[in-house]
Predict the structure.
Amino acid sequence: MILSINGWTLEQISAAISIATPIILLIWFYYSQKQTLSKNYYSEIDGIYAGFTDPINKAPANGTIYGGIIMNIRDIDNKGYFKGEFDFGETESIGNRPNDRSLIDGIHSFYGKVNFTLYRDKTRHLFKPKKNRIYHGKLYIVDRLDFSFDNYKIEEYLCSEYDIIHYREMQTLKFSLSKVYKKEYPSIPPSFILYKSVGFDFEPYINVKKTVFIAPRADK
């Protein structure tokens, strides 16, 4: 006598379980690995980034305009959402007098998200973008982050939206403007590249801070 359940024999059920078990284990392994590796990846995002930008203002005939951004990314969660603020500035230098006059100096709040992708284990190169692991995301510049908790719509605070490309091995973020939500959108470059500060004496963060954000000279 052959026992059956809903038309399935015990042999068929056993065979189905034998086939399904390794598939289930493989799916479980994939998601557990992705969760662990994404957590490691997101922990690398937090930090200070900086870089020079193309000037918005027009330089005088006998001078130079230096622009730069210093960005502080904080509070990233296990889904890739983060928030923070950045300082964008432009300084005019006349002749041999550095930091002669501050043209722009504004602090902007933002939130954003980067998406994690699994990559095969292979050789990467720290100084070749195409040989980096590359991740994509979005950055949203907002009017403020201290909005009313009980009655608010985040959409009301949006100023602009940027696409993010993260080059992991280079610890570099590339931003490209994709959408403007408000006509009074602040003067910020439509594209810029920022490099993570790692504490070296000569790095974009130190150079941008000295060149763009040091107080203008008093003896001009």
